[in-house]
Amino acid sequence: MAHMARYASTRTGLTRVLERRIDNWAKRARRSGDRDTINAQVAAAKAMIDPIVVKLVAVGVIDDVGFAASRSRRLTREGHSGRAVQAHLAAKGVPPAIARAAVVPDAEREFGACLVAAKKRRLGPFGAGITPELKRREMATLARGGFGERVVRELFALSREEAEEKLIEWRNKVD
């Protein structure tokens, strides 16, 4: 419960945390105790994980849908592409259907996230100056971040003032 009070989690995430804590306890306990007894305690503790997780889901402490929606909004505001958000949610154990529902394909949302990412990393219109080689490298950086070619080209077509204006406008809509 202390973990859940401090961190948002998914079913899979909580299961991983509990298993890891049991394994860490067992490793320390095996140094000084009877291995057979400790192995039996580990098996009993791991058998209790699923019922505990089911109870926490039933009372609403764990909500994969809410977790995915909240994390998706936060990561988008921080400048992560839809693809990067889906990858993050998958790594956290969110089922694929829930992750797809949380990351609704929206051109405006993707462009806004691209603006934030470019501003953070001083790319494109937020950079110092653009040579053809630097432009290619910066575009590749954003592409590796999961942003599509159309979005990246649209960003690089803006002047710094236009990009700042669009970023402020997008942040006002999102917040």
Molecular structure report:
It is a single chain. The mean pLDDT is 90. The two termini are 30 Å apart. The protein contains 10 helices and no strands. It has 3 domains: 2-62, no CATH class; 63-105; 106-175, no CATH class. The chain is elongated, with a radius of gyration of 22 Å. The chain has helices at 2-6, 11-32, 35-59, 64-77, 82-91, 96-102, 107-121, 132-144, 149-156, 160-174. The protein has 175 residues and is an all-alpha fold. The longest helix is centred in the first third of the chain and has 25 residues, at 35-59. The relative contact order is 0.10.
How would you concisely characterize the structure shown here?
With 175 residues, the chain is mostly helical. The chain has ten helices and no strands.
Helix content, binned percent:
over 70%
Largest sheet: none
Instruction: Tell me how many strands there are.
Output: 0
Encode the helix/strand succession as letters: HHHHHHHHHH
The best one-word shape is: elongated
> Helical stretch count?
10
Rounded to an integer in angstroms, the radius of gyration calculated over CA atoms is 22 Å
Mean pLDDT level:
90
**Overall tally of domains:** 3
Strand content: under 5%
Task: Decide which structural class fits the backbone.
Answer: mainly alpha
The N- and C-terminal alpha carbons lie at a distance of 30 Å
Query: Regions with pLDDT < 50 over 5+ consecutive residues?
Result: none
